[in-house]
Design brief:
Two copies of one chain form a homodimer. Chain A is an alpha+beta fold. Helix content of chain A is 32%, strand content 23%. Chains A and B meet through helix 1, strand 3, strand 4, helix 3 and strand 5 of A and helix 1, strand 3, strand 4, helix 3 and strand 5 of B.
């Protein structure tokens, strides 16, 4: 059985689109925000922050999706790396996770589910994160993910909203997991042929040990690139920070075959919805169709997108490159103009 | 559109059975447990406990399921009450929640999803719990739930495992939501006709304000009754505590029509799997078939099951009855014998 053949959409491409989500959330009257909540979902941050003591805040996040790969073990590992990433993107350290699991209990070999969990546990072990519980539902399609809790010092939180004029923008992983996994789902490639993308999706977004305390404090804002694509998450950070991001599309790191897969039309619904989501506030007018497609490509377990102090940018990039070979400086932060994001060819 | 007609199984009856779950988990090699983790899923507790400071621990839990009612608002409210219950069952106070949401984005009126979220927000507001984020997946069937975080003093945690010989056992809500909602799903009753069960499912398991500090400290162990039925959760608590629970089946609180619905055969798969799950360690030999069925009935947002100091039991019951009219003393804790649970007729 090939897991990707059991679902309509895989991975972060299965997210409900940002436009639909906005429509729904605009109608809901939410409970009051407790004073302990320092960051909630209002600015599209990757995780919530809840202060516990003056020195300790909890980072709370939740992510789950349908199979993006055929191998249950790798699917579990990618889903877990993706869920943990939201804690890292806030500057936190994961501590505990609860599993979110659905599968057709009567029709699916339990060994498949075991392998998904084992892949998850391998990634959790690497992140020193304990699996402390979860909930499983009997459902026609396999879905897996985690609610992850971590800790962060309240003064060292990274959010979407503090990019500063003059900052340089760094992306740590290549773009193109959406097209590659679409090709896999259509049986146009094998899992072995997209190993570059799989290695990237299982690479933990942990960078705190790479950068010392000084360099860490030069990171002004951060997010991770997932289902809404580079274009979607970049726009969210620019808007949350009240700045305009100028992006050099030519600097954007891609996997070796991303353009080939996109040329062949290995697209998902998210390529279209991410385009719609960014049409109003991002200016793509100087880009080629291919450049635009790479920016709309929905990433699963994509890289970190960092806004860093200009004077430290090249040193930070150099350190990041020792682990993330595809890391690049991809743009700059400017004062706010009519667009949140300006793309240069 | 009637929500219950869009899914095969509803509510906590859609849980993967405890037997299947045990088979899967037995095969998985888990990450090491961090020293901060004071309670994990090993003893089937309702939530995990992670210590943050000597005075503060976090309670972490996660629950989600398919529609158990036709009204989106009520479904959201019941799912939320059910998720919050796990925090209360550990002696904690909820603080923040993350939403788990799946729905068919192309086919479902967004107003349905809005109503589910609004029902959730009403329950969260009542619990002083903030909604701080979440994740949504485009999926053929609606599912909703929450990952909830709360706080508890590390010395005031209620677990499954500390029932003491001589304790009396109290159940706070009536049994029978499984049969009633099965009847609804089969269109044998309307939502209005099961209002007693719906009121119960939306009643928060908050009891800390009812019992003073003294009475709270007389609660030695606690859990909430959900998908594995009274029989399943009672057995889990007896085994975790290393005791035998003697239960008076005749004292068990039921909804007015629970027996009628069960007699008519409004059963779910969980009635069978809960029977299998408890066949080895619980002795039902003196009970009628009807009594057994009530014990296997899967509860959604069921009551708290408390093991309390014998001398305070009647005072605790009296206080509980001011809010939970169906609360009853249903049994006693004995030294361990060959069965974890002995049912008396």
């Amino acid at each position: 059985m090939r897991l990707t053949q059991t679902v309509q959409k895989g991975g972060c491409a299965a997210k409900v689109s940002a436009i639909e989500l906005r429509k729904i959330l605009a109608q809901v009257k939410f409970p009051p925000l407790r004073s302990e909540v320092k960051v909630d979902g209002a600015l599209f941050d990757d995780a919530a922050i809840v202060q516990v003591t003056p020195e300790i805040a909890m980072v709370q996040t939740l992510d789950f999706f349908t199979p993006i790969l055929d191998s249950p073990f790798l699917f579990g590992k990618v889903a877990t790396t993706n869920a943990l990433s939201d804690v890292y993107a806030m500057g936190g350290k994961p501590q505990t996770a609860l599993a979110i699991l659905t599968f057709p209990a009567a029709d699916m070999d339990l060994g498949v589910v075991t392998d998904v969990l084992q892949g998850a546990c391998e990634a959790l072990t690497g992140a020193h994160c304990s699996l402390v519980g979860g909930h499983s539902v009997d459902d026609p399609t396999l879905k897996f993910g985690l609610s992850v809790s971590g800790i962060v010092h309240p003064e060292k939180i990274w959010t979407n909203s503090k990019a500063q004029v003059g900052d340089r923008l760094i992306l740590t992983k290549a773009l193109g997991t959406g097209a590659a996994t679409a090709a896999l789902k259509r049986s146009e490639v094998t899992e072995a042929e997209i190993s570059e993308e799989i290695v990237s999706m299982t690479q933990m977004n942990q960078i705190q040990d790479l950068l010392g305390a000084d360099l860490l404090s030069s990171v002004h804002a951060a997010t991770d690139i997932t289902g809404f694509g580079f274009a979607g998450h970049c726009q969210q950070m620019a808007k949350a920070s009240g700045k305009t991001f100028q992006i050099q599309a030519a600097s954007m790191p891609l996997f070796e075959k991303t353009k080939i897969y996109l040329e062949k039309g290995f697209l998902t619904k998210a390529h279209r919805t991410n385009k719609e989501y960014t049409a109003e506030f991002s200016n793509f007018s100087r880009l080629s169709e291919m450049q635009k497609l790479t920016l709309f490509d929905p990433q699963t377990s994509g890289g970190l997108f960092l806004s860093v102090k200009e004077s430290e940018a090249s040193q930070i990039l150099q350190k990041l490159k020792t682990r993330f070979q595809k890391a690049q400086i991809v743009g700059d932060v400017m004062s706010q103009t009519s667009f949140a994001v300006e793309y240069l060819p």
